[in-house]
Design goal:
- With 505 residues, the protein is of the alpha+beta class.
- Helices cover 52% and strands 8% of the residues.
- The strands form 4 sheets. It has a 5-stranded mixed beta sheet. Strands 5-6 form a two-stranded antiparallel sheet.
Length: 505
């Protein structure tokens, strides 16, 4: 071996040794930092391990249940470490409400997961903060209302999609089928009509590819490898799920750029067809005024539209799937819903104004949202300033997890928290009553901006489907055998199952 080769080998060995030494020192310093004391009283919590933090103590399949158990031992404000990341968890209705509503300024930041930060880059609505978030949220909320959210125009769009969904269910001729993909089509189309200004035909290749990508995101985001990546991104950049996630995002981006280009070519400022048109008009007006530092740029448009689809499709479709599964599981409750629907509206088209005359149906929908608990932990928050909360000091920039499952199953707020019981939302006279601890959309300034749209969709779709179909387990399966144990992907989804939709009229 020559002198040059020996020198290179020695240099390489030193580099590897140096890298390992730096990694070891980093781990030791991080481990030591777990135990550094502050004069101010920080939230207590279970003792973390070096590097791994409290990960080994969390239930792999239902980690949020472990957090609920921790709250019983350490209180409603406590600390856990997810790897090296410090997280303050808020548990119970009173604590979550106090933080998100009464201390909205302190807890109003957003802490995006690494994979989502790579994709969103601080743009859009869901994962952004600061002025850009405020501007995009204000714009999206105003324009979604303009294009029908909470109005009769939106009811008509939902009614149209109900007709298409009924036709789709009828094609199964009462035989068992998987409800997952069929349920996504009408919900996604409502977002399409409000964002792009028009709906897609269900057999459109463009629409099918959009739905396939939305449908695939949950399993990717919920995969074990992706969870590990979000905790240790500096170690696992190579994983296949990360590559697939970005591949799906690139395909959606490419499709949206094409759609935006067509909308721009046919744009009429006097007649905006949807949210994209309104954004493009605002963008043009700002450019004509010589304003170049606006938040109305292409990246914000792309991410805002992407956020609206991911948040507005999955959540509503999954909740409706839970509702139909619960009806098959609890046929006596389905009987009561259908009896009430028959007495109040018969075979007429369901309208939002019917909700006040259908207290039991409304209660069943609310109880479905409570028990389904599809987002057991709210999208992570971050403190925007130092705050002393319930006697605990929480530093600026700390990640905060509002534990919504602890609110929806709070034993001090619900008579039978772990039982599907529509009476939670009914008074002694059978009238519908609101419950303060009903918080599936989170609360405060970060509350879901599509809440009113989701409520409208859930009511009209559910009532219409129960008008037209009787939902039963597959042949050979009894109601008691229907599995209602959730699977955790991006959201808490129903277990894989099939239902029969038997026509009633």
């Amino acid at each position: 071996m020559g002198l040059l080769e020996s020198s290179l080998l020695f240099s390489s060995s030193v580099s590897v040794f140096g890298g390992l030494l730096v990694l070891l020192l980093f781990c030791l310093i991080s481990s030591f930092s777990f135990h550094l004391k502050d004069d101010r009283k920080e939230p207590p919590g279970p003792k973390p391990l070096p590097i791994l933090g409290n990960l080994l103590q969390l239930d792999r399949k239902i980690p949020y249940n472990t957090l609920v158990e921790f709250s019983k031992e350490y209180g409603s404000v406590f600390t856990v470490y997810l790897g090296l990341k410090k997280v303050v968890v808020l548990a119970g209705y009173k604590t979550v409400k106090e933080a998100l509503v009464n201390h909205a300024d302190e807890f109003g930041g957003r802490d995006p997961l690494p994979i989502l930060n790579e994709r969103n880059q601080g743009h859009g609505i869901l994962w952004s903060s600061g002025d850009s978030w405020r501007e995009m949220r204000r714009f999206a909320l105003a324009n979604l209302k303009d294009f029908g959210m909470g109005k009769r125009a939106c009811e008509d769009k939902i009614a149209e999609e109900c007709e298409h969904l009924i036709e789709l269910f009828l094609k199964f001729k009462g035989e068992a089928f998987d409800t997952s993909k069929p349920m996504y089509r009408p919900i996604a189309n409502i977002i399409c009509s409000m964002v792009y200004g028009s709906r897609f035909e269900y057999d459109s290749p463009e629409f099918k590819s959009l739905l396939n990508r939305i449908h695939r995101l949950g399993p990717i985001m919920g995969s074990p490898l992706m969870k590990v990546y979000n905790i240790f991104p500096w170690l696992f950049r190579w994983i296949s799920d990360r590559k697939e996630f970005h591949s799906l995002g690139d395909a959606t981006r490419k499709q949206n750029i094409k759609l935006f280009s067509h909308l721009k070519e046919t744009l009429s400022p006097e007649r905006c067809r949807g949210l994209v048109d309104a954004f493009l008009v605002r963008q043009q007006n700002l450019e004509e005024s010589g304003i170049t530092s606006s938040h109305f740029h292409d990246e914000n448009l792309l991410m805002t539209v992407s956020n609206l689809f991911s948040a507005g499709t999955d959540t509503t479709a999954i909740t409706l799937r839970w509702a139909l599964l619960f009806m098959a599981r609890y046929p006596e409750i389905q009987d009561q819903v259908q009896e009430e629907l028959g007495k109040v509206i018969g075979s007429q088209q369901v309208q939002l104004e019917d909700r006040k005359n259908l207290p039991f149906t409304n209660a069943v929908i609310h109880e479905t949202q409570r028990v389904a608990n599809i987002a057991p932990i709210a999208i992570p928050h971050k403190t925007l300033q130092d705050v002393t909360f319930q006697g605990h000091f929480i530093k600026k920039g700390t990640t905060v997890y509002p534990l919504l499952s602890s609110v929806l199953f709070d034993e001090s707020e619900w008579a039978t928290p772990h039982t599907f019981n529509p009476a939670h939302f009914l008074d002694k006279d059978g009238k519908f009553v609101k419950q303060d601890a009903f918080m599936p959309f989170s609360a405060g300034r970060r509350v879901c901006l599509g809440e009113s749209l989701a409520r409208m969709e859930l009511f009209i779709f559910f009532a219409t489907l129960l008008q037209h179909f009787r939902f039963t387990p597959p042949p050979g399966v009894s109601e008691d055998e229907m599995d209602v144990n959730p699977q955790l992907l991006l959201f808490l989804e129903p277990p894989t199952h099939k239902l029969c939709a038997v026509p009633r009229m």
